[in-house]
Design goal:
- The chain is 31% helix and 23% strand.
- The protein has twelve helices and 17 strands.
- The strands form two sheets. Strands 1, 10, 11, 12, 13, 14, 15, 16 and 17 form a nine-stranded mixed β-sheet that branches. The chain has an eight-stranded parallel barrel with strand order 2-3-4-5-6-7-8-9, surrounded by five helices.
- A hairpin with a 2-residue loop joins strand 10 and strand 11.
- Pfam families: Ala_racemase_N (PF01168).
- This is D-serine deaminase-like pyridoxal phosphate-dependent protein.
Length: 393
């Protein structure tokens, strides 16, 4: 029984604390590689935020390089020799980090920054002055726009058409101090949107319809855009996809690598997919500190709300013992989290309840360390980014 194994392994720890079950983590890593069908997977570090676990993923077959969420993070991972292939997934306006990048020859060989406009190049030049070639990745928008004024997908790059991509690629190549080496095109309306949301059958139908139409369109447009870019630039990589879209993105002939991170931990937002089901690997434990009535147990702390829309699916969820739920009028709180259900009748003061976060790496913004479990014991305890005194978000 998993609950017993977790309780026994952590019996000497006082909640709140966080764990990663390495057996589940390794299972998820292997399943992601299977789904990638031969494409290398770039590890999305924002979904991990534990240096030891980023390295653990990179040591496995099928994984290569890191997709960082800030330039400062990429510079730090380079200093720690976590990887020599560090792609910053978002444009940066961090002048201090740009200056450090420009001054560090090793980092310039390892780190690739993201741009989607000439204004980004202008900002870099203004921040650091004359500089040696910086590695650049062009972000292509692959949101779905079926009708004028209709935008389905994240608001990311303004570069939407193959012609726009070719024009920008040519301008980057003509610009002194920059070298275009890659393209990224993230289909968030598929990779980050579950097609089987629990208890929402009508929403599921709508999402599947959108994805069935969006998928072929984005593959055709991304292929055309990459073909156009290759006419003016020698690309080292074309990155696409995410945990939720590995199979689809892998069918795109223009894509050379995929990206994934959340699937290693299996947070609750990834319960809503038909094609795969990750094991919950990242958990946190809370203590029962009150029993307001027979069917309610109140836990200490727990209000670790995920980013995004302020909707119930961003709340953490009780996992073990089974049969618990939070209260609709109280939810997970700053200092207390009431849970109710038949399983609450058996809970006593001091018992622990195991919780799951809605997202992956965001959990570790709350903890300085994470306990890594293997089998029925704690194998070791390692610092999170926060525990190493780094906050990149």
């Amino acid at each position: 029984m998993r609950r017993t194994r977790l309780d026994v392994a952590t019996k000497d720890l006082d909640p709140p604390f966080a764990i990663v079950d390495l057996d589940a983590f390794d299972y998820n890593a292997a399943d992601l590689a299977r789904r990638a069908a031969g494409h290398p997977i770039r590890v999305a570090s924002k979904s991990i935020r534990v240096r030891d676990l980023v390295s653990r993923a990179l040591e496995r077959p099928g994984y290569r390089g890191v997709m960082c969420y800030s330039l400062a993070e990429a510079l730090w991972l380079s200093e720690q020799n976590v990887s020599d292939d560090l792609l910053v997934a978002y444009p940066t306006a961090d002048r201090a980090s740009l200056q450090k990048l420009a001054a560090n020859e090793i980092a310039r060989q390892r780190v690739t920054i993201m741009v989607d406009s000439i204004e980004h190049l202008d900002f870099v030049d203004a921040a650091i002055g004359p500089h040696s070639d910086l590695r650049v990745c062009l972000e292509l928008d692959v949101s779905w726009r079926p009708l004028p004024g209709v935008h389905i997908g994240p608001r990311r790059s303004p570069v939407h058409t193959p012609q726009q991509a070719k024009v920008l690629a040519a301008k980057i190549n003509q610009r002194r101090g920059f070298k275009l080496v890659g393209v990224m095109a993230y289909e968030g309306q598929i990779a980050g949107l579950g097609d089987n949301p629990p208890g929402q059958p009508l929403r599921a139908i709508g999402i599947r319809l959108i994805q069935s139409k969006s998928g072929p369109e984005l593959i055709a447009r991304r292929t055309a855009a990459v073909t156009a870019i290759r006419q003016v630039a020698d690309l080292e990589f074309v990155n696409g996809g995410g945990t939720g879209s590995l199979e689809l993105t892998g069918t795109d002939p223009s894509v050379t690598e995929l990206a994934a991170g959340s699937g290693l931990f299996g947070p609750t937002l990834f319960d809503g997919y038909q094609a795969f089901k990750p094991e919950p690997a990242a958990l946190f434990a809370l203590s029962v500190v009150r029993k307001p009535n027979k069917r309610t147990a109140t836990l200490f702390a727990g209000g670790y709300i995920a980013s995004g829309t302020p909707t119930p699916d961003r709340q953490p969820s009780p996992y073990l013992p089974e049969g618990l739920k939070t209260l609709g009028l109280e939810g997970a709180g700053e200092v207390q989290t009431p849970v109710t259900g038949k399983a609450a009748e058996q809970l006593k003061i001091g018992d622990r309840v195991w919780m799951r976060h809605a997202k992956a790496g965001e959990l570790f913004e709350r903890f300085d360390e994470v306990h890594l479990l293997h089998g029925d014991r704690i194998e070791r305890t390692v610092p999170t980014y926060r525990g190493e005194r780094h906050n990149f978000g």
